[in-house]
Amino acid sequence: MKITDEQIIKLIKNDKTLNAGFKMLMDAYQQRLYHHIRSILGNHEDTDDVLQNTFIKVFRNINNFEGRSKLFTWLYRIATNEATTFLKKNMRKNSFMESSEMGDFTNSLKSEEGSDGEFVKEMLKKALEELPPKQKAIFSLRYFEEMNYSDMSEITGTSVGALKASYHHAVKKIENYIKQVVIYQ
């Protein structure tokens, strides 16, 4: 028997069953949130840290969850905000690629020509790193999570029209980045 989100929330809001309810919540959503955060951040270590911060925030704020949205959209909103905040902090530390680093990157791509799938994955990963944090999150929700725009709207607090525009701009930036890399090969 599969437990529902409503049952999980009920368990969490009861002091006697809080731990069991939170464990069920983690079991139900940890893997999905991990993949979502990983699609935004790109590496395991940072993803683990952000996922942990996400669940800490969920634990601290679960009593504020009123059920006006779906539980998964509330969780995704927290995860997206945590990942976006993490990216913004790191962007301040690490500016965009220097032109010499761009040359090193394209040279490394040339050496991987025999591995087309890996080549494409690496290009997409590098292109995603160039996107602003919010565009990266929106692209990840739509492309990797295959989420519909109405759920994305709930998660991000952004209108469907603005999400479509942001996704379109992200796709164009990724296409331009990939074209630029291919030209330099």
How many domains is the backbone divided into?
Answer: 2
- Give, in order, the helices and strands: HHHHHHHHH
CATH homology group of the largest domain = RNA polymerase sigma factor, region 2, helix turn helix motif
Q: How does the major sheet shape up?
A: none
Global morphology? elongated
User: What is the first-to-last residue Cα distance?
Assistant: 55 Å
CATH architecture of the largest domain: Orthogonal Bundle
| CATH class type of the largest domain | Mainly Alpha
Strand element count:
0
Architecture overview:
- The chain has about 180 residues and is mainly α.
- Helix content is about 80%, strand content about 0%.
- The chain folds into two domains: about 1-95, RNA polymerase sigma factor, region 2, helix turn helix motif (Rna Polymerase Sigma Factor, Chain: A, Orthogonal Bundle), CATH 1.10.1740; about 95-185, Winged helix-like DNA-binding domain superfamily/Winged helix DNA-binding domain (Arc Repressor Mutant, subunit A, Orthogonal Bundle).
- α3 packs across α4, α4 crosses α7 (about 135-145) and α6 (about 115-130) packs across α9.
- Residues about 95-115 have low confidence and may be disordered.
